[in-house]
């Protein structure tokens, strides 16, 4: 859709300009989005434990629509029945440019200025991965024994189907190997050992202990 939109944006035969119509469209989509966000968050806050604050609503309202669906709908209009189709198409392209370029470039400074609390993404520790996977298997086994089909059962079956069939058909061998959990755990354990060796070397003031045969921490390292 966006490729088609880009081609249409440089097509001089579809452009019909009406400044008042374009500006009012930009105003109304912003106003009605804000009204929609406020009404829906008011309903959601009645059932949410963590409330959506006014700052969150401002960010949601400012997010705007990107216009791919709107553009797909407007180009499907019948030109014989809708005489101003080109005006609608041109205005929709302007809306897409406005929401993608202007709002897209200014949303980050707005979030920083409003001091919106953002989620922190971090890689789970090896211990967390192992325990999480173990609990998944345990819950799946309990559901299997009890005869209940729940989220864990379905996820485990889908993972098995993906691992046995989909991955072998759609992924290269090297990519399949990179997804292997045992190899990932082995890699992380090796990485953890390497970090501990380097930390020990820094504590002693050098890494000479790695080559020294007189220490218990000797490892076979190829320095070439």
Automatic annotation (TrEMBL):
GO cellular component, one term: early endosome membrane
Cellular compartment(s): Apical cell membrane; Early endosome membrane; Recycling endosome membrane
Reactions it catalyzes: Na(+)(in) + H(+)(out) = Na(+)(out) + H(+)(in)
Gene Ontology terms, MF aspect: sodium:proton antiporter activity
Bilayer disposition of the protein: Multi-pass membrane protein
Keywords associated with the record: Antiport, Cell membrane, Endosome, Ion transport, Membrane, Phosphoprotein, Signal, Sodium, Sodium transport, Transmembrane, Transmembrane helix, Transport
Matching PANTHER family: SODIUM/HYDROGEN EXCHANGER, SODIUM_HYDROGEN EXCHANGER 3
Protein's recorded name: Sodium/hydrogen exchanger
Record gene name: Na+/H+ exchanger isoform NHE-3
């Amino acid at each position: 859709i966006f490729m088609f939109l880009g081609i249409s944006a440089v097509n001089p035969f579809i452009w019909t300009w009406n400044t008042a119509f374009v500006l009012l469209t930009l105003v109304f989509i912003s106003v009605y989005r804000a009204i929609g966000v406020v009404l829906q968050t008011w309903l959601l806050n009645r059932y949410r434990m963590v409330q959506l604050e006014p700052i969150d609503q401002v960010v949601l309202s400012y997010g705007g629509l990107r216009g791919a669906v709107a553009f797909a709908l407007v180009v499907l209009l019948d030109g014989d029945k809708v005489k101003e189709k080109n005006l609608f198409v041109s205005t929709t392209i302007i809306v897409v440019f406005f929401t993608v370029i202007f709002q897209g470039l200014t949303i980050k400074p707005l979030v920083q200025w409003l001091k919106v609390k953002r989620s922190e993404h971090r890689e789970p520790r090896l211990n967390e991965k192992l325990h999480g996977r173990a609990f998944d298997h345990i819950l799946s086994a309990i559901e299997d024994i009890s005869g209940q089909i729940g989220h864990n059962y379905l996820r485990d079956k889908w993972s098995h189907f993906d691992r046995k069939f989909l991955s072998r058909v759609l992924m290269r061998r090297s990519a399949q190997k990179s997804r292997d959990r045992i190899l990932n755990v082995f890699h992380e354990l090796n990485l953890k050992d390497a970090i501990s060796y380097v930390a020990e070397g820094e504590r002693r003031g050098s890494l000479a202990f790695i080559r020294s045969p007189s220490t218990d921490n000797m490892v076979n390292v190829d320095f070439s």
